[in-house]
Amino acid sequence: MHDIVIGGLETFIGLQPILFTGIGVFLGIVIGVLPGIGPLLGVILLTPVVIPFPPVAGMGLLIGIFVGGSCGGAISAVLLRIPGTPIAAATLLDGYPMAQKGKAPEAVGLSISASALGGFIGGIFLVLGAPQLARVALKFGPPEYFALTVTGLIAIAVVSRGSTIKGLISACFGLLIASVGTDPFTGYDRFTFGFGDLMGGVRLVALLVGVFAISEMFIQIERGGLNVKPEIDIKIFRPSFSTVPTVIKNFGNLVRSSFIGTFIGALPGTGAVTASFISYAMAKSSSKESEKFGTGIPEGVIATEAANNACAGGALIPTLALAIPGEPISAVLMGSLMLIGFLPGPLLFRDHPEIVGGLFYAYISANIFLLLMGIFFTPLFVSILKIRKNRMIPMILLLSIVGTYSVQASLFDIWTMWFFGMVGYAMRKRGFPLAPLVIGKVLGPILEPAFRRSLILSGGSFSIFVQRPIAFTILIFNVILLTWTSIPPEKIKIMKNKIVNFISKRGSDNH
Amino acid sequence: MSKEKRWNLICAAFCVVLAIFILYLTLTTFVKEKATVGGPFANTAFYPRLLAGAIIFLSLLLAGTSLMKKIKGKKTYGGMGDSTIDSFNEAGKKELSEQDTISRGMLLALPFILVTYTILLNIFGYIVVTPVFMILLFWILKFRNWAMNILLSIIATFTLYLIFALFLNVILPRGRFPLVRW
């Protein structure tokens, strides 16, 4: 822990890492505000930019985008009733009514303050929890790693939109794409079809940009609304820092929501949307004025924003400690760290504690920047809401092309990007989720070696996965998870509603 | 048979064909290159075969469940896990005018325009081709203010040139017949 704290401080304290983190937060808020982009796309598009830089500076920029983007969507949710990202969907329940009552500056200020403080609390859990998890994971062998990576894939497939079967098919294709190139065990080329550019495998950036950015732009163009200007009936304003004491006065709500966000963020397959809705339900049931939720009260905004930003810290715990990304953005962050030359996991904590520490400082600083920049630059972010789609889409396409090309100065990567753009578009039209494909590609280089090494250890016998208790327990959990998904969605919805109603009723009975 | 069911069956069939093609490759080119010797763990072909087998199994399961279950007409987009599609264009749910949408033909032509840009990028270079591409793209997407269109195209081209070529030292495509020396 000492190496992480001191070493991290040495790598982070410097103009470049701090500046990059600040720039990342600023860009993240801008990206989060604009409906149709989201922090995921922002992290993907800027990954090629950070590769040449030192790891903590580069990752600081991407983490800044993650943190800023998780909050930015709240501004458009409050003002337009359109969450800039789905993460902010729960915020409009009380944020938009607050703005309608003429309290837009307060609503936006509360969103930013709660996000920053919630994210900060999530950062504390990250700093305390990740090293402990990594210490446990150092004892893991190939069978445990295989079981964990399977869990990551199944969890994402289960919770992605569309059917679970389609998610699993998507994940298998992701793993297959990861196997393209030179086999690390035997040196033979797989599925390269004579292309020298494929010997190193399908480039991750080209795949990410194609599957997410290009397909998203096509979907946006197809949907129309190219010249539609969002109607904002509110003067440009700047919120006040007085919302910070307001959030702190709601200390119980803040800490509870941050804990929920961190816990849910750390679970593979769940995300900030789930965390913010659960946090809202818990805040409502615990409140003395639960009947006022939904009419525009600060507690509602604080609960959702603290949870969804704390989720970012929680998601980084398994990503850094176990190399198991809990959701798509952390999968991309993990891929970016690998591109920079560092493999997440317990060995990163053992061999490069200064890098881990630097990332921790970057995350915590990002939340401080979020508070300062979020409040100070709100007038700019509000005016950005007026940008129309037909100005934005060509810019994003151009950035996608140049960014993808810049990784290896290779036109082949641009062709790869177009190919996966078409694949991504077709998948979305037919209900196949994209996240499992990407996570399969990111986890493939970990899963296959772990699987094959396990079989080497056992002399080719699959019983090794049963004989190792941790691996066996994790695999049993996977079976339970898959069985759970075979329950019809209508029955799950009824059960979920019963749980939420029970929590709400219990809360109103207490008061 | 509902449209959704039909498409599920088509997708399942496509995945099966693709997986069989992968199996075929592992049974032919891999064998030819002697990549299939050794036990399962040393065998280059084993892991892709396992995945292809899993895809075939899952695709058949998809086909089977589609045939057995009633599919509700609700369309779902396969999202990013956090898809932002549904959040856009919901404000007011306005009727979209001709100014706000592009025709189906133009949408189908877009991939060809992007491919053409990539080919010309290699021939004439980034600085020459990109502003023209951006002007065309803005025009297709109904941004018809020509002065602003041209200005934005040039600014975008040179901003990215500044960031990538000058700041990050990336050599952007110069083309085979560079019309501009830079």
Please provide a written account of the structure.
The complex is a heterodimer of chains A (511) and B (182). Chain A has 511 residues and is an all-alpha fold. Chain A has one domain. Chain A has helices at 2-12, 15-33, 38-50, 55-80, 92-137, 142-159, 164-178, 204-223, 243-249, 251-266, 272-286, 298-322, 328-340, 346-351, 353-376, 378-384, 389-408, 411-429, 435-457, 464-467, 469-484, 489-510, and strands at residues 181-182, 189-190. In chain A, helix 3 (38-50) runs antiparallel to helix 4 (55-80), helix 3 runs parallel beside helix 13 (328-340) and helix 5 packs across helix 9. Chain B is an all-alpha fold and 182 residues long. Helix content of chain B is 60%, strand content 0%. Chain B has helices at 3-27, 29-32, 46-68, 104-124, 126-140, 146-167. Classes of the chains: A mainly alpha (511), B mainly alpha (182).
Q: Please name the two chains that share the biggest interface, counting residues whose Cβ lies under 8 Å from a Cβ on the partner chain.
A: A-B, 96 and 79 residues
* Major sheet: arrangement of strands of chain A: 1-2
Number of strands of chain A: 2
Rg result of chain A: 22 Å
Order of helices and strands of chain A: HHHHHHHEEHHHHHHHHHHHHHHH
The percentage of residues in β strands of chain A lies in under 5%
Number of domains of chain B: 2
Which series of helices and strands of chain B comes N to C? Answer: HHHHHH
How many DSSP H or I helices of chain A? 22
Q: What overall form of chain A do the CA principal axes indicate?
A: globular
CA(first)-CA(last) distance of chain A:
44 Å
Taking pLDDT < 50 over at least 5 consecutive residues as the criterion, the unreliable ranges of chain A are: none
**Classification by helices and strands of chain B:** mainly alpha
| Count of β-strands of chain B | 0
DSSP summary: helix tally of chain B: 6
Multimerization status: heterodimer
- Mean pLDDT score of chain B: 79
Helix content of chain A: over 70%
Largest sheet of chain A: 2 strands, antiparallel
